[in-house]
Design a protein that fits this description.
140 residues; five-stranded parallel beta sheet
């Protein structure tokens, strides 16, 4: 079985924190399969700012004590910024708009050859792989 590298988008992390069953189960399956789960800096920033805004101590503890220890934290490199800029230029030439955070997440995914876990279909316009763990995968 091929081991995969998954980069969790902010909505995948918040799905776990909020107890969304399908995402939690798929994440646990990825861990059992020996897949690598990545938390990159843009996602950590978005999750942290959201938790600080809501002031939910319980959710912050779930993130910091239960969830984050499963993840490998990956910093941004100068090359990621350059790749994000290339993604932006290509996307805007095609009339598409992306947030800078999503472009940076996609750049890290491209560097690592990883799959972005997100319910955001906008990622499909970029040359990266995406899975939506909110839905049950088809039976093989």
């Amino acid at each position: 079985m091929e081991r995969l590298t998954y980069l969790l988008d902010t909505n995948a992390v918040t799905d776990y924190i909020n107890g969304l069953g399908s995402t939690k189960e798929r994440l646990k399956q990825a861990l059992r399969d020996g897949d690598t789960l990545i938390l990159c800096q843009p996602v950590q920033y978005e999750v942290t700012r959201g938790l600080l805004k809501t002031g939910s101590v319980r959710k912050q503890q779930i993130f910091e004590k239960e969830f984050a220890p499963w993840l490998i934290r990956i910093p941004l490199l100068d090359a990621d910024w350059d790749q994000a800029a290339r993604f932006w230029a290509t996307a805007t030439a095609r009339g598409r708009q992306f947030s800078d955070m999503d472009l940076l997440i996609a750049a890290v995914a491209a560097r690592l050859g990883g799959v972005i876990v997100s319910s955001d279909e906008d990622f499909d316009a970029l040359p990266i792989r995406r899975e939506n763990w909110r839905v049950t995968p088809p039976a093989e």
